[in-house]
């Protein structure tokens, strides 16, 4: 009886293993190259590797169980123990292994020759700064070929503008102009000039019209990162040169910044111009909210309109427009302005922006986010839950989705789920400009201890957002910490110009401290919207008057406004027939309203 090792060798198991491993490696290399060429999804290679791994034990089993004999392939156990080994099987496996090894060596040699330039250091890719560029001479595509002077002048203007950027390495004019009319590969040019990017472009003049096209290419993979077309009147060509050069230089700072480019693409656009306009719109929107200047939001809408005009598929810009026009439909908020377009036009623009966001959604996440907004506008509570649950499933790190889920769970009476969603939101990393005010606002209704813990944690940071202190006072008053709550008023006053918000905080504090006369006086002096009027009256304990202030919104057109009040546990939808019927039709099990903790006792 031969030993196990000798038996494995005798049955060619070792030879089969070596031949299979070498051949499998070659198959994987060729498949990987083919997958890249045909843009095959990642799962194709993953599946192939799984099949190859599963195949190895199968091949070894077959080598053990079967034997090649002069009569053909037969089961090894059926052969006589003293039967001589057929030498053909060993020779065939040896030849296959040698051939596979020769091909593997040749493959490795080819890969080495076509890998990184051997003259460059090992970290050559890292040594070329991401923010480095060569500007090749712009081509003259004019019918008469008489604009070369303009093209050269524009190239020099762009070089001069880029050279003023401190952290940007720009190849010299002499080096760049050496590649005029070249047919050399752009990657080779970039390697020779030691830059990561190439800017090339063209000039075309027809009559009095001038068109300049520019495109930025990343040399490492020959990928077009950015392209733009600039049109102008050629009556003042020097001014046009300067204007276009500055525009291109500004755009390139974004296009060559990997982090900013990633943010831009994630937002749904590859147009740097549209992205920069969108960012300007966000900044103007924040300023308008900080000033409580509702009229300025119409100008912000114009900015977002410009962004989607440049890139009609810019999803986040459409969503920003939808949110802005939504604020101009909700008559109860301080963001609403009586000035501006008629109500019907605002509604039409909101619907149009939301439909565009759904239509141009570049991913299921984007589409889900837009569908959630639509469900909220239509007062479809269960659909809101469904879309938000799907959203956090797609992106578990989406803080806003978890906070919105906390709110909608609370609205529908699912308080345990609401608290769990709130704790999940709190556990996520916080950005520098995120005060978590919305989280505290909703969390105090389902887990007051957790809300106070959040306030205590964030108070140590001296938050810049006044809304944090507004919500912190609410949480502290709910928890009976009246003296600490009073400290939030001064902190809010230092950071906000919202007079209605300040008076509301003062009135809450007065009620909590039993100063009913002071609270009534504050109500008389307060600038009121429908929302703040309801809040003031509820806090004063004048529930019947508060109820009447909202009755006008219990209509099909304005029902979404009334539904906004569902996140108040003190709000009773049973007093509004249409809203209550809508909730009942959806099976919403909402518990009865409860009195406000710090309500005045009239």
Describe the structure.
- The chain has 602 residues and is of the alpha/beta class.
- Among the domains are: 4-113, no CATH class; 128-256, ABC-type transport auxiliary lipoprotein component (Rossmann fold), CATH 3.40.50.
- It contains 28 helices and 8 strands.
- It has helices spanning 4-10, 13-37, 42-65, 87-113, 124-127, 148-163, 173-177, 186-193, 237-255, 258-267, 272-291, 296-310, 315-327, 343-359, 364-377, 381-394, 399-411, 415-427, 437-443, 448-459, 466-478, 482-495, 499-512, 516-525, 530-540, 543-549, 559-563, 577-585; strands at residues 66-69, 72-75, 132-135, 139-140, 169-170, 197-206, 209-218, 223-233.
- Strands 3, 4, 5, 6, 7 and 8 form a 6-stranded mixed beta sheet that branches.
- Strand 7 and strand 8 (223-233) form a beta hairpin.
- Helix 2 (13-37) runs parallel beside helix 4, helix 16 (381-394) runs antiparallel to helix 17 and helix 25 runs antiparallel to helix 26.
- The chain starts with a helix and ends in a 17-residue tail after the last helix.
Based on the model shown, name its key terms.
602 residues, alpha/beta, 8 strands, 28 helices, single chain, Rossmann fold, 61% helix, globular, 6-stranded mixed sheet
In short:
The protein is built from 28 helices and eight strands. By secondary structure, the chain is an alpha/beta fold. Mean pLDDT is 81; it is low at 112-127.
